[in-house]
Amino acid sequence: MMGRGFFFAAVMATCSSGCGGEVNLGGKSSDTWPGDGKTVEGPHAVETELVHQLFPPFLSSHTLAVAGDYVYFAGWENSVHPALHRCRKTSCRTTVEGLANTSDLIHSLQVYEQRLAVAAGRDTQWLGSYALPSASDKQVVVDNLPSLGGGLDPLFHGGFVYWSLPQDGAIYRCALPACAGGPERMGSWHNDAWLSGEGDLIFWLQGDGFIHRAAQFGGSPAQRLLADQTLSEAAAGDELDPSREKAGLIATSQGELYACLQSTGSRCGCNPTLSSGSDCVASVVRWPVAGGARETIVSLEERVSRFFVFEKNWRG
Amino acid sequence: MHDGYKSWLILSSILTVGCGGGAVDLGGRDASGWADAPSQEADSTRPQTLFEGKALVFGLTVDETTLYALLFHGEQGYELVACPIDRCRSERSTLSFYPGAGVHTPLILMGDRLYWVEFDDIPGQGIASCPLAGCETPDLVLSRINSDIAADGEHVYWIDSDCWLNRLGPGSAEPEKLRDLRPAVLKPGGAAAPGTLAIAGEHVYFINASVEIYRVKKDGSEAATPFANDERIGGIGVTTEALYYSTTTLAGAILSCPLAGCEDQSRAIATNQRWPSGLQTHHGEAFWFNTEQPSMQSARGSLSSCRLPECSTVKEVVSNFPLPDRAVGAGSNDHAWVAINRAFVLWVEASEGDSLGSALRRLPR
């Protein structure tokens, strides 16, 4: 299973965001802070360490990023002031510091090209980046956007930023650093437009059950892919058979496309769209991004609402 | 009734009493908010305010000399006014003042009457009209209007909630139901949701469900036929040769189609427009709104234009003003916020921080 590199798919069941406004790092602490020692039950259990308390419940898994020696996280310092923080990975609790150059509410963080890429803003949103390690040199790619919608993070990849707009039902891209030529429409979506990129391939979901893939950083026509044993391309005009497996989440890393396939299995009462859908069956699988044999990484008898692919031993 | 209306009434009363019936000058405006426009020589690049006050401009039209506007005064109802474009403060007349509440509507001047949609709900209640000489109560022709309205100089056209094409001529007390459009537009899995109308030659063109444009003979003698398909179509305008429409998205565009047929002939003539809406064509020029800052609290935008048919240069007529409609992509009758004649373009702005206020401004073309 681990033959394609030292990467794990981390599956976060049920709790996709919020999580009480706490920043936790895996690993046990000897101190006793509120929230310390929380565990995720089951075969993938981890113990957690509370390192900083933000105003709940506005910290989310969308607003954590790791770069170099630091963990970056954003949220509300109190009920009034949004804040961006960083701490050292090896001694986070004692090194948390606020970064002064951000007054906007940050909705997502991503490390891209040695910069901290963000979606930020209040009444309207902007996409751009700050220089690392101290979040200086704010650069705006595109601004005055309406809300991107909860959980729909933009993707910075390959010299572009990609995002979806609920108001338009569309996926856009802008060339970095300043969106020369204006936003380009790349595709449409009708539900959750999870975006991911690998090489010059851009992947997304758009609620129709297919995985969509477009080469040349989204500049080529999109292909509709089936989440089957080989990631095969659907024939033009085909509708997805409701009984087939559907990808609910996707991510890419190191030449692999990861997907979380969710289904009712043999159980009654599963509704994968509801947070209470605990009777669902999920599996995390992966293929080579260009297509090839599917490999199952883990199967869970739980609903999965978000998952990540990250490097093992990232704490360094 | 909306709490804001009560506040408006109180404020209005204070203003009326305190100002002695409109004698106080408010920056060139009278107590009602109307102003006489300065001469054109003053500054042809700076917007001139014709009205700014505690009323919502719900309908607007102009001919070459006269401005007509339908103002909503909250609980007091509607006021239909007319004035010479340069002298709205000094020579304004109220054509009608009547109770009602609703939403903004195209205001159409045809012959010696003004026509608009009367709303008691959505769909609309009917076509209201008033002679230019004035009326105590507007005439109302009942029809559940489910679309925009448009006129060709002889009739006013609309589509009702049964999806019939209707028209009304001067002096008529009953709408003429011309054709059932459902067989054409109601496809399996589709929606019959007519929006903006435009008239060119012998045809009525209308947007359906924001994704297709149909055309139908004005007399209803032939079935409606598909004319164009696109995404999020937000407005249409016509000339004698072409139909123009906007795609109302972040990366929106103005596109043109020959009236002879649009299949494979659709051509983007202006791109990188932000949610363009309210498209109008007038004397060889197209006008539309862009939503530059799509905040629900105070959406701001611009009014842009270009010369047709090529639209080689897009001009920002006026920028960064509070849009009258705060929804991104806005509604099917956004063109009602703009009125154009050979000399001027006039537009409506929202009042920042006042949900029952608006402004009407103009610029020379």
Explain what you see.
The complex is a heterodimer of chains A (316) and B (365). With 316 residues, chain A is mostly beta strands. Chain A is built from 1 helix and 24 strands. In chain A, the strands form 7 sheets. Chain A has a 4-stranded antiparallel beta sheet. A 4-stranded antiparallel beta sheet of chain A has the order 8-9-10-11, with no helix packed on it. Chain B starts with a helix and ends with a strand. With 365 residues, chain B is mostly beta strands. In chain B, the strands form 7 sheets. Chain B has a 4-stranded antiparallel beta sheet with strand order 1-28-27-26. A 4-stranded antiparallel beta sheet of chain B has the order 2-3-4-5, with no helix packed on it.
Features:
heterodimer; A: 316 residues; mainly beta; four-stranded antiparallel sheet; disordered N terminus; B: 365 residues; 2 helices
Give a summary of the structure in a few sentences.
Chain A is mostly beta strands and 316 residues long.
